[in-house]
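Subject: mismatched residue count in predicted assembly?

I count 230 residues in my input, but I want to confirm that the predicted structure covers every chain. Input:
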Amino acid sequence: DVKVTQSSRYLVKRTGEKVFLECVQDMDHENMFWYRQDPGLGLRLIYFSYDVKMKEKGDIPEGYSVSREKKERFSLILESASTNQTSMYLCASSLITGGDGYGYTFGSGTRLTVV
Amino acid sequence: AQKVTQAQTEISVVEKEDVTLDCVYETRDTTYYLFWYKQPPSGELVFLIRRNSFDEQNEISGRYSWNFQKSTSSFNFTITASQVVDSAVYFCALPFFGGYNKLIFGAGTRLAVHP
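Triage response: the counts match. Full output below for your records.
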């Protein structure tokens, strides 16, 4: 069964810490995405990557960075965690084109609490 | 600009009732896809359907049906004879203008089906 795996389901971090959220997919997908999910706001795109070492900002990149050194792995980095980054973080991957269209495969999410 | 509006924040029904989740969108694209995803309590978003804007025929899959009306920019989702297992958050989504497979999501509708 194809999968997008997020390394942690729950994380609690302190304000000011550097936080790494890891995402791995085994489907050889070109595209990978990081979204955050907040009540009443839906999913908002933070960053995405369409190839190794390539990245593009989404709607809300401030306070975040990403790394994609290998095709299967896409990391989200909170340079200095703040309480307003407490949220559910969702990773997704997709093919660029083809029969899958724009459909995403999602991970189970990481619920991050910054205290 | 691309926009997806799900005006219903929460819906509560009793098992076996029919329920319709509304989705209204705005897009500058002349051809586009629309999506519905389901997020059960486990957290992982699950793909339900992709609809091409060329095809305005209603689609039915078991108890699920979708009504796409380009004239009113709506893509509504109906669950017939709802079940407790349908309890989830449902998201409607539309690709960003310009491609790269980026999806913009609505705020989501939380459906609670009570026994």
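The two ends of chain A are 36 Å apart (CA to CA). Marking this ticket as 'not a bug'.
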